């Protein structure tokens, strides 16, 4: 036998097993589908959480805005009433010294009232910012925790 004939007789070609290939493809497709479902479920849950957070934030913003607006209206009303009361007192004044005394008293009371109003507005505004940021902060912390777990 020649050398080339001997070589040709000993070479084995791998056989293609269609059943094994089909099983492997099926397994791969099932795993891919399962991973896709898991990813979609996580994405959907994240989107729902984000929507709830936004809804909560918008409601909180509305409530905080209402509270700040009411506080501002109350302050303006108090300032207007003090101004009109001062004008009535000035109209009733009989001497210049009485006018000076009324004006000095009015300015002092008005400054004290404005300082108190500013403190109230600061407290209401600080509470509003805290209330508004709380849902977003909570959602962010939850997301970061979920990312660390994954």
UniProtKB/TrEMBL annotation:
Origin: domain of life:
Bacteria
Q: List the Pfam families hit by this protein, alphabetically.
A: Phasin_2 (PF09361)
Question: Entry's InterPro entries?
Answer: Phasin, Phasin_subfam-2
Give all residue intervals belonging to the Phasin domain. Answer: 42-138
**Protein name in the entry:** Phasin
- The organism of origin for this protein: Nitratireductor arenosus
């Amino acid at each position: 036998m020649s050398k080339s004939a001997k070589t040709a007789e000993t070479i084995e070609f791998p056989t293609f097993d269609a059943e094994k290939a089909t099983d492997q493809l099926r397994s791969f497709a099932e795993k891919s589908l399962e991973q896709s479902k898991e990813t979609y479920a996580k994405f959907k849950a994240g989107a729902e959480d984000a929507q709830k957070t936004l809804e909560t934030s918008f409601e909180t913003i509305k409530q905080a805005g209402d509270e700040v607006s009411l506080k501002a209206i109350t302050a303006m009303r108090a300032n207007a009433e003090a101004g009109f009361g001062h004008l009535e007192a000035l109209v009733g004044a009989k001497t210049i010294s009485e006018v000076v005394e009324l004006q000095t008293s009015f300015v002092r009371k008005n400054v004290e009232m404005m300082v108190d109003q500013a403190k109230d507005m600061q407290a209401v505004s600080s509470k509003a910012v805290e209330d508004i940021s709380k849902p977003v902060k909570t959602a962010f912390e939850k997301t970061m925790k979920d990312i660390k777990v994954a």
